């Protein structure tokens, strides 16, 4: 079974500092995608970043970057220069199967302190 | 470009009543998804459409849930009769097609409370 585990239910960070959110997954596939989605209180899920398993280079999007360790099945998200607007639930997700459906973790609630 | 539209935003019903949710995906997106998100958990896929055909409904409780996507555009998810455990946020998402790595774009969801 494809599972995604986020071991940190809650995290907090001071504004302008860096925080890392953890994610591990279980799969027997070799070709897949991983995603981080952000869900603010408005409930709309927004894509933060995605990573293709075949690419060894870690994906980056402005202040957001990932540390993808394929052998360890680990996919952590680093947020640099944290801003108040980064406060949200963050979900790690894995895309798999012939119809590429997403399996989500339980999420990490990030609080940004001014 | 308009995003995924969902309505209503909130719905409160009593158990055993019926309820319907509506979703209009991003224009041109062939794939449409309905997810159930129970408080404190990540979204769980209920059903996936490719155009107007069902691709995956393995986790849809078919004795009470139904969904359709007539004409391959907007979609309706129905619950009849509702149970207390159906209280959740129902999210609709769409993507341009079935391809590895395709981004799913989400609507704001409908929060359902069953009393």
Describe the structure.
With 114 residues, chain A is mostly beta strands. Chain A has a single domain (3-113), classed as Sandwich (Immunoglobulin-like), CATH 2.60.40.10. Chain A has strands spanning 3-5, 10-14, 19-21, 24-26, 33-39, 46-52, 60-61, 64-69, 74-79, 88-96, 101-104, 108-113. In chain A, strands 2, 5, 6, 10, 11 and 12 form a 6-stranded mixed β-sheet that branches. In chain A, a hairpin with a 4-residue loop joins strand 8 and strand 9 (74-79). Chain B is mostly beta strands and 115 residues long. Chain B has one domain: Immunoglobulins (Immunoglobulin-like, Sandwich), CATH 2.60.40. Chain B contains no helices and 11 strands. Chain B has strands at residues 5-7, 10-13, 19-24, 31-37, 44-50, 53-56, 65-68, 75-79, 88-95, 105-106, 110-114. In chain B, strands 2, 4, 5, 6, 9, 10 and 11 form a 7-stranded mixed β-sheet that branches. In chain B, strands 1-3-8-7 form a 4-stranded antiparallel β-sheet, with no helix packed on it. In chain B, strand 7 and strand 8 form a beta hairpin. The N and C termini of chain B lie far apart (37 Å). At the A-B interface, strand 6, strand 10 and strand 11 of A face strand 5, strand 9 and strand 10 of B.
What's the short version?
Chain A has 114 residues and is mainly beta.
Q: Outline of chain A, from the CA principal axes?
A: globular
CATH architecture of chain B: Sandwich
What is the CATH topology descriptor of chain A?
Answer: Immunoglobulin-like
| Tally of contiguous helical segments of chain A | 0
Count interface residues per chain for the largest interface: A-B, 25 and 28 residues
Q: Determine the oligomeric state from the structure.
A: heterodimer
The level 1 CATH classification of chain B is Mainly Beta
As for the number of domains of chain A, it is 1
Report the sheet-strand fraction of chain B: over 45%
CATH A-level architecture of chain A: Sandwich
Tell me about the largest β-sheet of chain B.
7 strands, mixed
The CATH superfamily of chain B turns out to be Immunoglobulins
Largest beta-sheet characterization of chain A: 6 strands, mixed
Radius of gyration of chain A: 14 Å
